[in-house]
Protein backbone atom coordinates (compact mmCIF):
# COMPACT_ATOMS: atom_id res chain seq x y z
CA UNK A 1 0.00 0.00 0.00
CA UNK A 2 1.11 3.49 -0.83
CA UNK A 3 2.34 5.41 2.20
CA UNK A 4 0.12 8.24 3.39
CA UNK A 5 0.83 11.28 5.54
CA UNK A 6 -2.57 11.25 7.26
CA UNK A 7 -5.73 9.28 6.52
CA UNK A 8 -9.17 10.77 7.19
CA UNK A 9 -12.13 8.36 7.29
CA UNK A 10 -15.63 9.80 6.90
CA UNK A 11 -18.50 7.35 7.38
CA UNK A 12 -22.02 7.70 8.75
CA UNK A 13 -22.55 4.70 11.02
CA UNK A 14 -20.67 2.93 13.78
CA UNK A 15 -19.64 -0.38 12.12
CA UNK A 16 -19.17 1.14 8.64
CA UNK A 17 -15.45 1.14 9.50
CA UNK A 18 -15.37 -2.62 10.14
CA UNK A 19 -15.32 -3.63 6.49
CA UNK A 20 -12.32 -1.32 5.92
CA UNK A 21 -10.62 -2.07 9.24
CA UNK A 22 -7.72 -4.02 7.72
CA UNK A 23 -6.74 -1.12 5.49
CA UNK A 24 -6.96 1.32 8.41
CA UNK A 25 -4.97 -0.98 10.72
CA UNK A 26 -2.26 -1.34 8.09
CA UNK A 27 -1.94 2.45 7.72
CA UNK A 28 -1.68 2.75 11.50
CA UNK A 29 0.96 0.01 11.47
CA UNK A 30 2.94 2.11 8.98
CA UNK A 31 2.85 4.97 11.49
CA UNK A 32 0.24 6.96 9.57
CA UNK A 33 -2.20 8.88 11.78
CA UNK A 34 -5.86 8.02 11.13
CA UNK A 35 -8.73 10.36 11.99
CA UNK A 36 -12.23 8.88 11.90
CA UNK A 37 -15.27 11.14 11.54
CA UNK A 38 -18.40 9.10 12.28
CA UNK A 39 -21.47 11.17 11.51
CA UNK A 40 -24.20 9.38 13.51
CA UNK A 41 -24.56 6.79 16.25
CA UNK A 42 -26.65 4.48 14.08
CA UNK A 43 -29.52 5.13 16.45
CA UNK A 44 -32.14 3.80 14.00
CA UNK A 45 -30.43 0.44 13.52
CA UNK A 46 -32.82 -2.49 13.71
CA UNK A 47 -30.31 -5.05 14.94
CA UNK A 48 -30.32 -5.15 18.72
CA UNK A 49 -29.11 -8.65 19.46
CA UNK A 50 -31.20 -11.82 19.46
CA UNK A 51 -32.92 -11.90 21.87
CA UNK A 52 -32.84 -8.08 21.77
CA UNK A 53 -30.69 -6.59 24.54
CA UNK A 54 -31.19 -2.98 23.43
CA UNK A 55 -34.05 -0.68 22.51
CA UNK A 56 -34.44 2.68 20.77
CA UNK A 57 -33.58 4.50 24.00
CA UNK A 58 -30.50 2.50 24.97
CA UNK A 59 -29.12 1.78 21.47
CA UNK A 60 -27.17 5.04 20.87
CA UNK A 61 -25.06 4.72 24.03
CA UNK A 62 -24.46 1.02 23.34
CA UNK A 63 -23.38 1.73 19.77
CA UNK A 64 -21.08 4.54 20.90
CA UNK A 65 -19.31 2.12 23.26
CA UNK A 66 -19.11 -0.45 20.46
CA UNK A 67 -17.63 2.19 18.14
CA UNK A 68 -15.00 3.12 20.71
CA UNK A 69 -14.11 -0.54 21.23
CA UNK A 70 -13.88 -1.05 17.46
CA UNK A 71 -11.49 1.90 17.19
CA UNK A 72 -9.34 0.44 19.98
CA UNK A 73 -9.15 -2.83 18.07
CA UNK A 74 -8.10 -1.09 14.86
CA UNK A 75 -5.75 1.32 16.67
CA UNK A 76 -7.67 4.52 15.85
CA UNK A 77 -7.12 7.12 18.58
CA UNK A 78 -8.66 10.17 16.90
CA UNK A 79 -12.41 9.52 16.70
CA UNK A 80 -14.73 12.45 16.03
CA UNK A 81 -18.44 11.85 16.51
CA UNK A 82 -20.42 14.49 14.62
CA UNK A 83 -23.70 13.89 16.45
CA UNK A 84 -26.03 13.75 13.45
CA UNK A 85 -29.05 11.46 13.54
CA UNK A 86 -29.15 8.14 11.69
CA UNK A 87 -31.10 8.24 8.38
CA UNK A 88 -31.10 12.05 8.23
CA UNK A 89 -27.68 12.93 6.74
CA UNK A 90 -29.22 13.77 3.33
CA UNK A 91 -31.68 16.16 5.00
CA UNK A 92 -29.11 18.08 7.03
CA UNK A 93 -27.98 21.58 6.07
CA UNK A 94 -25.39 20.74 3.38
CA UNK A 95 -23.37 23.91 3.84
CA UNK A 96 -23.10 23.37 7.58
CA UNK A 97 -22.01 19.74 7.15
CA UNK A 98 -19.52 20.65 4.42
CA UNK A 99 -18.06 23.38 6.61
CA UNK A 100 -17.54 20.94 9.48
CA UNK A 101 -15.83 18.47 7.14
CA UNK A 102 -13.71 21.25 5.65
CA UNK A 103 -12.61 22.29 9.16
CA UNK A 104 -11.37 18.75 9.86
CA UNK A 105 -9.62 18.57 6.47
CA UNK A 106 -7.91 21.92 7.12
CA UNK A 107 -6.88 20.73 10.57
CA UNK A 108 -5.44 17.28 9.84
CA UNK A 109 -4.48 17.90 6.20
CA UNK A 110 -5.10 14.32 5.06
CA UNK A 111 -3.28 12.93 2.05
CA UNK A 112 -6.12 10.38 1.68
CA UNK A 113 -9.83 10.37 2.55
CA UNK A 114 -11.80 7.14 2.73
CA UNK A 115 -15.59 7.41 2.35
CA UNK A 116 -18.54 5.97 0.42
CA UNK A 117 -18.98 6.44 -3.32
CA UNK A 118 -22.02 8.73 -3.72
CA UNK A 119 -24.76 7.02 -5.69
CA UNK A 120 -23.31 3.51 -5.40
CA UNK A 121 -23.49 2.81 -1.68
CA UNK A 122 -27.09 1.61 -1.18
CA UNK A 123 -27.91 3.32 2.13
CA UNK A 124 -29.03 6.97 1.78
CA UNK A 125 -26.71 7.97 4.65
CA UNK A 126 -23.76 6.34 2.83
CA UNK A 127 -24.52 8.20 -0.39
CA UNK A 128 -25.07 11.51 1.43
CA UNK A 129 -21.82 11.14 3.37
CA UNK A 130 -19.81 10.42 0.24
CA UNK A 131 -21.53 13.30 -1.56
CA UNK A 132 -20.59 15.70 1.25
CA UNK A 133 -16.94 14.62 1.06
CA UNK A 134 -16.84 14.94 -2.74
CA UNK A 135 -18.48 18.38 -2.63
CA UNK A 136 -16.08 19.58 0.03
CA UNK A 137 -12.91 18.22 -1.58
CA UNK A 138 -14.13 19.32 -5.02
CA UNK A 139 -14.22 22.92 -3.82
CA UNK A 140 -10.53 22.80 -2.88
CA UNK A 141 -7.93 23.88 -5.42
CA UNK A 142 -6.99 20.77 -7.41
CA UNK A 143 -3.38 20.89 -6.22
CA UNK A 144 -4.46 20.81 -2.55
CA UNK A 145 -6.96 17.96 -2.82
CA UNK A 146 -6.29 14.75 -0.94
CA UNK A 147 -6.91 11.51 -2.82
CA UNK A 148 -10.38 10.08 -2.14
CA UNK A 149 -10.86 6.30 -2.01
CA UNK A 150 -14.52 5.32 -2.12
CA UNK A 151 -16.32 2.17 -1.02
CA UNK A 152 -19.11 1.08 -3.38
CA UNK A 153 -21.33 -1.98 -3.19
CA UNK A 154 -24.55 -1.23 -5.07
CA UNK A 155 -25.59 -4.01 -7.44
CA UNK A 156 -24.08 -3.44 -10.84
CA UNK A 157 -21.71 -0.71 -9.67
CA UNK A 158 -18.75 -2.36 -11.41
CA UNK A 159 -20.56 -2.12 -14.73
CA UNK A 160 -20.56 1.66 -14.34
CA UNK A 161 -17.41 2.33 -12.34
CA UNK A 162 -15.29 -0.49 -13.69
CA UNK A 163 -13.38 -2.76 -11.33
CA UNK A 164 -12.01 -1.20 -8.13
CA UNK A 165 -8.56 0.27 -8.73
CA UNK A 166 -7.40 -0.10 -5.12
CA UNK A 167 -7.51 -3.70 -3.87
CA UNK A 168 -5.81 -4.24 -0.53
CA UNK A 169 -4.85 -7.66 0.81
CA UNK A 170 -5.27 -7.23 4.56
CA UNK A 171 -4.34 -10.81 5.57
CA UNK A 172 -1.85 -9.41 8.09
CA UNK A 173 -4.51 -7.38 9.90
CA UNK A 174 -7.38 -9.84 10.29
CA UNK A 175 -7.07 -9.81 14.09
CA UNK A 176 -7.77 -6.07 14.24
CA UNK A 177 -10.56 -6.39 11.67
CA UNK A 178 -12.18 -9.32 13.44
CA UNK A 179 -11.92 -7.36 16.68
CA UNK A 180 -13.76 -4.47 15.05
CA UNK A 181 -16.63 -6.70 13.92
CA UNK A 182 -16.77 -8.36 17.35
CA UNK A 183 -16.87 -4.94 19.04
CA UNK A 184 -20.14 -4.20 17.22
CA UNK A 185 -21.90 -6.97 19.06
CA UNK A 186 -25.39 -5.48 18.65
CA UNK A 187 -24.95 -5.45 14.86
CA UNK A 188 -22.88 -8.48 13.92
CA UNK A 189 -23.60 -11.19 16.49
CA UNK A 190 -26.04 -12.80 14.06
CA UNK A 191 -23.93 -12.18 10.99
CA UNK A 192 -20.99 -14.32 12.07
CA UNK A 193 -22.96 -16.71 14.29
CA UNK A 194 -20.62 -19.22 15.90
CA UNK A 195 -17.83 -18.71 13.40
CA UNK A 196 -14.34 -17.75 14.53
CA UNK A 197 -11.34 -16.11 12.93
CA UNK A 198 -9.77 -19.58 12.68
CA UNK A 199 -12.36 -20.50 10.07
CA UNK A 200 -10.84 -20.41 6.59
CA UNK A 201 -14.13 -19.16 5.17
CA UNK A 202 -14.11 -16.17 7.54
CA UNK A 203 -10.50 -15.36 6.69
CA UNK A 204 -11.33 -15.50 2.98
CA UNK A 205 -14.32 -13.21 3.49
CA UNK A 206 -12.29 -10.57 5.36
CA UNK A 207 -9.05 -10.75 3.39
CA UNK A 208 -9.70 -8.24 0.59
CA UNK A 209 -10.79 -4.60 0.81
CA UNK A 210 -11.58 -2.72 -2.39
CA UNK A 211 -11.90 0.97 -3.20
CA UNK A 212 -12.49 3.20 -6.19
CA UNK A 213 -10.37 6.34 -6.50
CA UNK A 214 -12.73 9.25 -7.12
CA UNK A 215 -11.92 11.09 -10.33
CA UNK A 216 -12.67 14.79 -9.96
CA UNK A 217 -13.60 16.59 -13.19
CA UNK B 1 -36.19 -6.17 26.36
CA UNK B 2 -38.68 -8.78 27.54
CA UNK B 3 -41.70 -10.43 25.93
CA UNK B 4 -44.70 -8.13 26.37
CA UNK B 5 -46.77 -8.52 29.54
CA UNK B 6 -50.06 -7.04 28.29
CA UNK B 7 -51.66 -6.33 31.65
CA UNK B 8 -48.64 -4.37 32.85
CA UNK B 9 -48.55 -2.45 29.55
CA UNK B 10 -52.24 -1.64 29.96
CA UNK B 11 -51.61 -0.23 33.45
CA UNK B 12 -48.93 2.14 32.11
CA UNK B 13 -51.21 3.17 29.23
CA UNK B 14 -53.85 4.14 31.80
CA UNK B 15 -51.31 6.34 33.54
CA UNK B 16 -50.48 8.20 30.33
CA UNK B 17 -53.98 9.04 29.14
CA UNK B 18 -55.64 12.46 29.16
CA UNK B 19 -52.39 14.41 29.23
CA UNK B 20 -49.85 15.79 26.74
CA UNK B 21 -47.29 13.07 26.04
CA UNK B 22 -44.51 12.34 23.55
CA UNK B 23 -44.78 9.56 20.98
CA UNK B 24 -42.15 7.82 18.85
CA UNK B 25 -43.57 5.55 16.18
CA UNK B 26 -41.64 3.70 13.50
CA UNK B 27 -41.67 0.82 11.09
CA UNK B 28 -38.91 -0.42 8.81
CA UNK B 29 -38.14 -3.20 6.38
CA UNK B 30 -34.42 -2.53 6.89
CA UNK B 31 -32.30 -0.27 4.71
CA UNK B 32 -30.96 -3.23 2.71
CA UNK B 33 -34.25 -5.03 2.00
CA UNK B 34 -34.24 -4.25 -1.73
CA UNK B 35 -30.46 -4.61 -2.01
CA UNK B 36 -30.60 -8.16 -0.65
CA UNK B 37 -33.71 -9.20 -2.57
CA UNK B 38 -34.75 -7.20 -5.63
CA UNK B 39 -38.33 -8.47 -5.31
CA UNK B 40 -38.59 -6.61 -1.99
CA UNK B 41 -38.99 -2.92 -1.37
CA UNK B 42 -37.11 -0.80 1.13
CA UNK B 43 -39.51 1.27 3.20
CA UNK B 44 -39.19 2.92 6.56
CA UNK B 45 -40.96 5.57 8.53
CA UNK B 46 -40.48 7.20 11.88
CA UNK B 47 -41.84 10.06 13.90
CA UNK B 48 -39.83 10.99 16.97
CA UNK B 49 -41.21 12.98 19.88
CA UNK B 50 -44.55 13.91 18.39
CA UNK B 51 -46.96 15.49 20.91
CA UNK B 52 -50.28 13.72 21.40
CA UNK B 53 -53.02 13.35 23.98
CA UNK B 54 -55.21 10.27 24.02
CA UNK B 55 -58.50 9.64 25.74
CA UNK B 56 -58.66 5.90 25.14
CA UNK B 57 -55.73 3.55 24.83
CA UNK B 58 -55.40 -0.21 24.97
CA UNK B 59 -53.30 -3.19 24.03
CA UNK B 60 -55.00 -5.99 22.13
CA UNK B 61 -54.28 -9.46 20.77
CA UNK B 62 -52.57 -12.55 22.11
CA UNK B 63 -49.09 -11.79 20.85
CA UNK B 64 -47.77 -10.23 18.74
CA UNK B 65 -49.84 -7.40 20.14
CA UNK B 66 -51.54 -4.29 18.82
CA UNK B 67 -51.86 -0.91 20.50
CA UNK B 68 -54.43 1.72 19.55
CA UNK B 69 -54.66 5.20 21.03
CA UNK B 70 -57.66 7.43 20.32
CA UNK B 71 -56.43 11.02 20.20
CA UNK B 72 -58.32 14.30 20.04
CA UNK B 73 -58.17 14.33 16.24
CA UNK B 74 -57.32 10.79 15.12
CA UNK B 75 -55.52 7.59 16.06
CA UNK B 76 -52.10 6.19 16.78
CA UNK B 77 -51.82 2.49 15.86
CA UNK B 78 -49.13 -0.16 15.91
CA UNK B 79 -49.31 -3.88 15.12
CA UNK B 80 -46.70 -6.59 15.53
CA UNK B 81 -45.43 -5.61 18.98
CA UNK B 82 -43.56 -8.42 20.75
CA UNK B 83 -41.23 -6.88 23.35
CA UNK B 84 -41.16 -4.18 26.00
CA UNK B 85 -38.75 -2.81 28.54
CA UNK B 86 -40.15 -3.93 31.89
CA UNK B 87 -37.74 -1.73 33.85
CA UNK B 88 -39.63 1.40 32.78
CA UNK B 89 -42.42 2.25 35.24
CA UNK B 90 -43.71 5.54 33.82
CA UNK B 91 -43.14 5.31 30.10
CA UNK B 92 -43.66 2.61 27.49
CA UNK B 93 -40.96 1.24 25.23
CA UNK B 94 -42.61 -1.29 22.91
CA UNK B 95 -41.09 -2.97 19.87
CA UNK B 96 -41.82 -5.77 17.44
CA UNK B 97 -38.80 -7.95 16.70
CA UNK B 98 -38.71 -10.63 14.01
CA UNK B 99 -37.29 -14.14 14.46
CA UNK B 100 -33.76 -12.80 13.85
CA UNK B 101 -34.22 -10.25 16.63
CA UNK B 102 -34.41 -7.35 14.20
CA UNK B 103 -36.76 -4.49 14.96
CA UNK B 104 -39.69 -4.17 12.55
CA UNK B 105 -42.02 -1.83 14.44
CA UNK B 106 -41.60 0.44 17.45
CA UNK B 107 -43.88 2.51 19.67
CA UNK B 108 -42.71 4.60 22.62
CA UNK B 109 -44.80 6.83 24.86
CA UNK B 110 -43.61 9.05 27.68
CA UNK B 111 -44.30 12.25 29.63
CA UNK B 112 -40.90 13.71 28.67
CA UNK B 113 -39.13 13.65 25.27
CA UNK B 114 -37.12 10.58 24.31
Describe this structure in words.
The complex is a heterodimer of chains A (217) and B (114). By secondary structure, chain A is of the alpha/beta class. Chain A has a single domain (7-213), classed as Rossmann fold. Helix content of chain A is 39%, strand content 18%. Chain A is built from 8 helices and 7 strands, in the order E-H-E-H-E-H-E-H-E-H-E-H-H-H-E. In chain A, helix 2 runs antiparallel to helix 6 (174-183). The longest helix of chain A has 16 residues, at 59-74. Chain A is globular and about 50 Å long. Chain A starts with 6 loop residues before the first strand and ends with a strand. The relative contact order of chain A is 0.20. The mean pLDDT of chain A is 96. The radius of gyration of chain B is 14 Å and the shape is globular. Chain B is built from 2 helices and 9 strands. In chain B, the strands form 2 sheets. Chain B has a 6-stranded antiparallel β-sheet, with helices on one face. Chain B is mainly beta. Chain B has one domain (2-110): Distorted Sandwich (Protein Yojf, Chain: A), CATH 2.70.180. At the A-B interface, loops of A face strand 2, strand 8 and strand 9 of B. Chain B: Pfam families: DUF1806. Chain B: InterPro entries: DUF1806, YojF_sf.
Descriptive labels:
heterodimer; A: 217 residues; alpha/beta; Rossmann fold; 7-stranded mixed sheet; 8 helices; 7 strands; globular; B: 114 residues; mainly beta; Protein Yojf, Chain: A; 6-stranded antiparallel sheet; 3-stranded antiparallel sheet; 2 helices; 9 strands; 13% helix; GlcNAc_PI_deacetylase-related (chain A); Deacetylase (chain A); BshB2 (chain A)
Give the helix/strand layout:
The complex is a heterodimer of chains A (217) and B (114).
Chain A: E1 7-11, H1 21-29, E2 34-40, H2 59-74, E3 78-84, H3 94-108, E4 112-116, H4 124-138, E5 147-151, H5 157-161, E6 166-169, H6 174-183, H7 185-192, H8 200-206, E7 208-213
Parallel strand pairs in A: 1-2, 1-4, 2-3, 4-5
Antiparallel strand pairs in A: 5-7, 6-7
Helix pairs in contact in A: 2-6, 3-4
Chain B: E1 2-3, H1 6-16, E2 21-28, H2 33-36, E3 44-52, E4 54-60, E5 65-71, E6 75-81, E7 83-84, E8 92-97, E9 103-110
Antiparallel strand pairs in B: 1-7, 2-3, 2-9, 4-5, 5-6, 7-8, 8-9
Amino acid sequence: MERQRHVLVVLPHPDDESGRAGTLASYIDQGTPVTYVCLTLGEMGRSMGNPPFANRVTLPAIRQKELEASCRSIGITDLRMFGLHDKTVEFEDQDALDARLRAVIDEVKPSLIITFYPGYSVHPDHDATGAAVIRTVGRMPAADRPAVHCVAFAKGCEEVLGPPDVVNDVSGYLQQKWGSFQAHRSQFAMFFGNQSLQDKEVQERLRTESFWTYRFE
Amino acid sequence: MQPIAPQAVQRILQGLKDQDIYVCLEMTTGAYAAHRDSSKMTAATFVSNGRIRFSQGSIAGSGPYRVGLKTETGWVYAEGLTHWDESEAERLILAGHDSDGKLVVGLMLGKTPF
